[in-house]
Design a protein that fits this description.
Length: 384
């Protein structure tokens, strides 16, 4: 058996690879080498086409028996923004004052490194009555077209079944161990264009101003709460994120008025139901409009059960903290995996993700790898 992997060193090696979506930058090469040294069978899966960028993904599995416990995550990162605003090289993986700096340190290369370190130690402890797998994508921060969703389809076509999955997204707001995600809200964006007739403001009877109608439409959509929330979800929320006319003239009635709406919704709602409600509401107004809806993901919930309890037990054993089960935050690739296996999310602190000087505590990376190892031990002990 190979020497156990050091999570800090591996995290640094991956952070030093510039993997801004859709580029891989060599990150998966680094990861694959470590996993193959541990005895994992690795499948590099590149997906693209239909006008989209090709994305590199990795599915790796140790063992062939069931149950198959899967760690899932991503190695792509968001752009660094203004690099001169960083106090450290965004891809330098510098450690200072006990913190690891770099793009992806929090979200989520350090968690992927903790996956591997945990696997290396657990495998060194002896045989498993099952398998461990890693599903790693390079398309979580991007459009999420050629990443996890297509890897899951490939797995199904090739007889690869997972029995439980832990996603390593940064779930903790302020302190490691305080939060496990057991679901996510759905997300959809609607582009509304109201059409009128251009004309001179002095002759409004010869024109049809779409701006007032758009304002009334938006007022109707925002007049009442969508719901009151549930035991596990906060209330669904509709926000108008922009209103645009693009009219440089003060004496011209415009021909179009645009608005964009985002809805984050709980499992009382569906995207189809919300689209129907929006259409029926807008149809009550005279005039012409178009509505284009893009759905990022549906709401889902893995009810508290064996997997979330197991993760909570491991967190409490290592940190002495009772984590809260939550569905807050944005979307993640868990929205795809939940159709294949029970799922939970637990990772590092997310307060600096996507920010200048993104960083995490080195001690937290070590603790996270310990928790992941404990989760593996408890899972396979329970399935023995």
């Amino acid at each position: 058996m190979s020497t156990p992997i050091d999570a800090i060193t591996l995290a640094q090696d991956m952070i030093r690879c510039n993997s801004v979506t859709p580029a891989d930058g060599g990150t998966l090469d680094v990861l694959q080498t470590c996993l193959e040294d541990l005895g994992f069978t690795c499948h590099r899966l590149a997906f693209g086409g239909d006008g989209t960028d090709e994305v590199q993904n990795l599915y790796a599995r140790w063992g062939s028996a069931q149950p198959n416990f899967c760690f899932a995550g991503h190695t792509d990162v968001v752009p660094v923004g203004d690099s001169t605003a960083w106090t450290a090289d965004p891809f330098g993986a510098r450690i200072k004052d006990g913190k690891l700096f770099g793009r992806g340190a929090s979200d989520m290369k350090s968690a992927v490194a903790a996956f591997v370190a945990a696997c290396s130690r657990r495998l060194a402890d002896g045989p498993l009555n099952g398998s461990i797998s890693l599903l790693i994508t390079g398309d979580e921060e991007g459009p999420a077209i050629n990443g996890t969703k297509k890897v899951l389809e490939w797995m199904k076509d090739n007889g690869e079944t997972i029995d439980a999955c832990l996603v390593g997204e940064p779930t903790n707001p302020d302190r490691l161990g305080e939060m496990i995600k057991i679901g996510r809200r759905g997300s959809m964006t609607a582009d509304l264009v109201v059409t009128g007739t251009q004309g001179h403001v002095a002759y409004p009877h010869l024109a049809d101003n779409p701006v007032g109608r758009l304002i009334k439409m938006l007022a109707a959509l925002t007049a009442e709460p969508l719901d009151a929330g549930t035991d596990h979800f906060q209330p669904s929320n509709l926000e108008v994120t922009t209103i645009d006319v693009g009219n440089p003239a003060s004496n011209v009635i415009p021909s179009e008025a645009h608005a964009r709406i985002n809805i984050r919704f709980n499992d009382l709602q569906t995207s189809d139901g919300l689209k129907t409600w929006m259409t029926e509401t807008l149809d009550s107004f005279d005039g012409t409009y178009t509505l284009r809806v893009h759905v990022t993901g549906e709401a889902f919930l893995t009810p508290p059960g064996p997997l979330s309890a197991l993760v909570a037990q491991a967190v409490k054993a290592r940190l002495g903290v009772e984590p809260v089960l939550s569905t807050t935050g944005g979307t993640s690739d868990a929205r795809f995996i939940k159709d294949y296996a029970p799922i939970a999310e637990f990772g590092l602190i997310g307060s600096t993700m996507h920010k200048v000087d993104e960083h995490v505590s080195v001690d937290d990376i070590v603790a996270l790898s310990d928790i992941y190892e404990d989760i593996l031990s408890r899972y396979f002990a329970a399935s023995a």
